[in-house]
TrEMBL record:
Protein family: Belongs to the class-II pyridoxal-phosphate-dependent aminotransferase family. MalY/PatB cystathionine beta-lyase subfamily.
Cited SUPFAM superfamilies: PLP-dependent transferases
Annotated protein name in UniProt: cysteine-S-conjugate beta-lyase
GO molecular function annotation: cysteine-S-conjugate beta-lyase activity
Keywords in alphabetical order: Lyase, Pyridoxal phosphate
Cited Gene3D superfamilies: Aspartate Aminotransferase, domain 1, Type I PLP-dependent aspartate aminotransferase-like (Major domain)
Organism: Vibrio stylophorae
Pfam families assigned: Aminotran_1_2 (PF00155)
Superkingdom, taxonomy of origin: Bacteria
Residues in the signal sequence: none
Cofactor(s) named in the record: pyridoxal 5'-phosphate
Length: 386
C-alpha cells in the first residue's frame, strides 16, 4: 500500500454536530463552509494514535513540554531552514494569536505604535487595538511579477518615531506569498533603519506548495535580525490540530524573552497535556502524511487557479503557500462579494475582515469533491449576473 492510499484526503469526514466552528456557522443552511483556516482532513494517524495512548492513561493533570518535543523543534529548524536555535529560546503558547497579542503588549508601550501589513490576517489588527496601541498600516500591493508583498516605500511614508514593532507575516496570509531572501533582507533593513522589533508569524511555513519557493525564517537572516525578533510557529495548521492549541514563540534575545514571558504571567496558561502529545507526534512522525497532504493541496490550488481565472470578474493570482486563496472580485458588479457568494451557497471569509472588501478568502483545505461543488456554485452565481 502506498502512502497516497494510506492517507486518503478524498475521504469525507462528517464534521457537523462536532462543535466545529467552521461547519456549525452555517448549520441548517445549504452553504458550504470555506472560511476559517482549519482543514477537513483527519490528522496524521501517528497523532491520533498518540492521543489515544495519552487518553488511555486516564490522568490529565498539569504538564510541561516534553524534552523530546523541544529537541524535535530544534532539529526541525536546523534541517529544514538551516537555523540553529537553542532550547532556552522556546516559549510554548496555547495558540499563535495569543503570541501576537503578547508581542503587542510586551514589546511596545502605551504611547507607541505598531505597524502591520494590510490586507492581513485579522488578529494582527486586533492585537494592536486590544493593546490600545496606534495601528500603522503598511500596504500589501501586487508586484510586477504578480506576487503580493508589503510595500516598504509606502510604509516609509506612514511610519513615525513612535512606531516600535512590526507585526510581519511570512508566508503571507492572505495572499500566499513566500518571501524570497532579498525581500526579507529589505524588510530587515527597514526594521533596522527604524529600530523596529519584529514579530514574525510563520505559522504557514510548512505549507509551501510551489517547488521553487523556500521558507526562510526572518530571524535566521543574521544576528541582528535574530536579536530584534519574535518568531511564531505552530503545528496547528500543518497537521490540522488547531483546536488543541499548541504554538511556539522562538525568542533569541533574553531581554525580549523576559518581557514576553513576564507579560503572559497569570494571563496566558501553559499548554494542556494533549496539546503537547499531539505536537510531539506530529513533528516526530507526521512528515509522510504531510508530504501527501501537500501534493493534494497543490492539486486543489492548481484546480482553483485554472477554474477561478476562467470566470469573468474574478482573478486569483499565483501563490506559493497556504490552503487559502485570496480571490479578487473587484470586477464583479456586486456591492459585497462575500454576501453575494454566501447567498449562492459558498461561505468564504469576507475580504473586509482583512482590509479589502472587494476580495474573498477561500479555504481549499477540503476534499476535491467539495471544492468542485463550491466552484460550480461560484460559476452559477456569476453567470446569473449577465
Amino acid at each position: 500500500m502506498t502512502e497516497s492510499t494510506l492517507f486518503d484526503f478524498d475521504q469525507v469526514v462528517e464534521r457537523r454536530h462536532t462543535q466545529s466552528d467552521k461547519w456549525e456557522k452555517y448549520a441548517g443552511q445549504d452553504i458550504l463552509p470555506m472560511w476559517v483556516a482549519d482543514t477537513d482532513f483527519r490528522s496524521p494517524p501517528a497523532v491520533i494514535e498518540a492521543l489515544h495512548q495519552r487518553v488511555d492513561h486516564g490522568v490529565f493533570g498539569y504538564g510541561h513540554a516534553p524534552e523530546h518535543l523541544t529537541q524535535l523543534i530544534i532539529e526541525r529548524m536546523q534541517t529544514r531552514y538551516q537555523w540553529t536555535i537553542e532550547a532556552d529560546w522556546l516559549v510554548y503558547l496555547p495558540g499563535l494569536v495569543c503570541g501576537l497579542n503578547l508581542a503587542a503588549r510586551a514589546l511596545t508601550e502605551s504611547a507607541q505604535s505598531i505597524m502591520t501589513p494590510s490586507p492581513i490576517y485579522p488578529p494582527f489588527v486586533s492585537s494592536a487595538k486590544l493593546a490600545e496601541r496606534e495601528l500603522i498600516k503598511a500596504p500589501v500591493t501586487l508586484q510586477a511579477d504578480n506576487r503580493w508583498l508589503m510595500d516598504l516605500n509606502q510604509a516609509e511614508q506612514s511610519i513615525t518615531e513612535q512606531t516600535k514593532l512590526l507585526q510581519f507575516c511570512n508566508p503571507l496570509n492572505p495572499g500566499g506569498t513566500v518571501y524570497r531572501r532579498e525581500e526579507l533582507e529589505a524588510v530587515h533593513a527597514f526594521a533596522k533603519k527604524h529600530d523596529l522589533l519584529v514579530c514574525s508569524d510563520e505559522i504557514h511555513s510548512d505549507l509551501i506548495l510551489s517547488p521553487d519557493a523556500k521558507h526562510i525564517p526572518f530571524a535566521s537572516l543574521n544576528e541582528d535580525a535574530a536579536q530584534r525578533s519574535v518568531t511564531l510557529i505552530a503545528p496547528s495548521k500543518t497537521f490540522n490540530i488547531a483546536g488543541l492549541g499548541a504554538s511556539i514563540a522562538i525568542i533569541p534575545n533574553p531581554a525580549l524573552r523576559a518581557r514576553f514571558t513576564r507579560t503572559r504571567q497569570g494571563i496566558v496558561p501553559s499548554l494542556n497535556v494533549l496539546a503537547y502529545t499531539a505536537a510531539e507526534a506530529a513533528y516526530d512522525k507526521g512528515q509522510a502524511w504531510l508530504d501527501v497532504q501537500l501534493d493534494y493541496l497543490r492539486g486543489n490550488r492548481d484546480y482553483l487557479l485554472r477554474e477561478i481565472n476562467q470566470i469573468e470578474g474574478l482573478t486569483l493570482h499565483p501563490f506559493d503557500a497556504t490552503y487559502l486563496a485570496w480571490i479578487d472580485a473587484s470586477a464583479l458588479p456586486v456591492a459585497n462579494p462575500f454576501l453575494f457568494f454566501e447567498k449562492a451557497g459558498v461561505g468564504m471569509s469576507p475580504g473586509s475582515d482583512f482590509g479589502n472588501s472587494k476580495f474573498v478568502r477561500l479555504n481549499f483545505g477540503c476534499t476535491r469533491a467539495l471544492l468542485e461543488e463550491a466552484v460550480k456554485r461560484i460559476k452559477t452565481a456569476v453567470a446569473g449576473l449577465n
